[in-house]
Structure formats: structure tokens, C-alpha cells
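hey can u check if this looks right to u? its 295 residues, i copy pasted from the old doc so theres a chance i mangled smth
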Amino acid sequence: MHATIEAFFDPDTGTVSYVVADPATSAAAIIDPVLDFDFKSGRTTTGSADALLAHLREQRLTLQWILETHAHADHLSSARYLQQQAGGRIAIGKNIRRVQAAFKELYNLERTFLPDGSQFDHLFEDGETFAIGRVEAVALLVPGHTPADMAYLLDGAAFVGDTLFMPDVGSARADFPGGDAHALYRSIRRLLALPEATRLYVCHDYPPPGRAPQWQATVAEQRARNIHVRDGIGEQEFVAMRQARDATLELPTLILPSIQVNVRAGALPPAEDNGVSYLKIPLNVLGAPRLARAS
């Protein structure tokens, strides 16, 4: 029996979260879950995460893994909340330590925050195999968007995070700390070297006018039609395009609140002596406003 895949689209952030399950054992993994956040009020809510939990209950699934493709800049992760409610191990690629070190300095995080990945239950090596029930999966390092991006390959499908978008949207930006357009191109070509029938599931969709959100395309479709990196577009051409485009992009709306939660595996910052957690907004450090979107 093949793994089942259920997608959950969050229109507020354009994020797609997935529940992947092994029908033979009822074991499941959740990939890239969202914690709802209202920037104006500073309030977090769990509606998106609760929809994932409801699906687990309805299908009588046991949560084995909570997989992050990277430390997202456009939504807060609900990994820790999901773990508290349903168990499972929170995992990400081992290069999260590089991201943590960069953002610990940016936010001047508390001394007790260690950029060693210990906030996560497991750090994947490139090419490491693991299992969701009896379904074998492989963690692939696909850096470029950030140094820590991972893709998860299983049962003829790959969950590619922000490395690729839908063919008519293209590819992710590569100008975050540690980002590298050359590395991004090579990571994309690694994914596009998979069998042509492999289904690639993206983490975000920012659909052009007139198209409903979508989140899955085959390797063959990406190689034929991706506007940034289809077959015939070489590394230098891609890098020139990506760098020119990134120079026009505004930072994602939620980058400052989201990263300081996501490097903690979805945990909020420690409460201060009044019992309240606070998010930091560093002033006059990041770049000037440009054009909003992460594509």
C-alpha cells in the first residue's frame, strides 16, 4: 500500500502543510505545520494546527514525525504545539545550527539559547534514511534558499519546501542569511534529476491571477515548464535572474516574528518574569523595504 498524502493550505501565508501516513501501520508525519499569528495584536492561535490534529483523529493516525523543511521566514511553526497534543519527534536538517547562529546574533537571544540544534529531537544528515511506519523515506539536503533546507523523498513523492515553487511561479529567493543562488540552482537540479514521474510537493504557492492555489507538479512538468529553472536554463543564467529578482523583493511580512520561533522548533521565547513571552524586532538592521513576496 502506498503512503497517503493530505494537503492543508493556509491562505493567510500561502503555506501548504502535509499529513503523510502509512496505511499499513497508521503512523503519520506532519510536514511544515503553521501556527496562526495575528501581527497586529501579537496573538497566536492554533486553528491551522487543530485541523491537522482533527485529521489525525479522524483517520486514527499516530503522529511519529513532525518534519520541517527549513526555518521558515513567512509563517510561525506549530511543531511544538502539535508535539504537546499528539507526540512525535520534531526534525530538521543539521544545518539548522548555522541558521540558529546567524539569528541568535541578529536577535541577541538569551544566553541560554544554544545554536546547536538541541531544540529539535532529530537533525538529519544528507541522504539519511528514516521511516514513517513501514514507508521508507530519505532526507535530502537542498541548500540555497537557506543553508538548512531539506527535501523529504518517499514513495514516489518529494516534499521540497521552498526550494521550488509551482512551474508558473518558479523558485524561492536566495538572499536570506546564508542563502546562495548557485547552491539553490544545484539543489534544484538535484531534485529534477529524480525520476520524471516523481511528484514534487511545494511548501508555498503564490498563484498568478486567475489560478487557484496548487502544490504538486511532477519532475517532468517542472523540467518542461518552470519559468526560472526549466531544462535549458544554465546555472549562470539562473543566478543572474535570481539575484536581480531578489534585489526587488521586500522581506516577508512575518520574517522577524517567525524566525525567532522557528529556530526554537516552534517554541515561543521563554516567558519573562511577568509570565509573558516577547518577540524581538531589531531596528535598522535588515534591508530597506522593497516589493512584498517570497518568490
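The two ends are 36 Å apart (CA to CA).
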